[in-house]
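chain below, 143 aa
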Amino acid sequence: MAVTRAQVKQIALSLPGAHEKPSYGKPAFFIEKKFFTRLREDGSIVMRVGSIEQRDMMLELDPETYFITDHYKDWPGLLVRISAITPGELKTMLERRWREIAPRKLVREADGEVAPGKKKAAKKTAQPRKPAKAKKTAKKKSR
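prediction:
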């Protein structure tokens, strides 16, 4: 089942910290200030991958799904035809990219390590005890 533009938006915005704003005049999604993905008019999305080598491997393995234009040839990213992937595949791709760029706090919250909106409790360190004050004893004056 092919992915629709509405599903791209729904899945992208379902991830913590995601928001939509235009990029190159097209709908794009960001995690805080970091680029996440962008919809293109030709029915594809822009996806950044780990390296140019990884991109080239994906292009070779599945040229019906992944492609690039000259604009992207020196960038570690590729274009994904949304008509060639399922919603589950899109979700997996976006979640993987989200984990790479999301602030650690959001990732920990999503993994259930920290309650949303709560700071992780800091370990209490033992404070050194102040020595007890010695009682003053009156000295007798000797004459």
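The mean pLDDT is 86. The first strand starts at residue 18 and ends at 23.
thats it, cya
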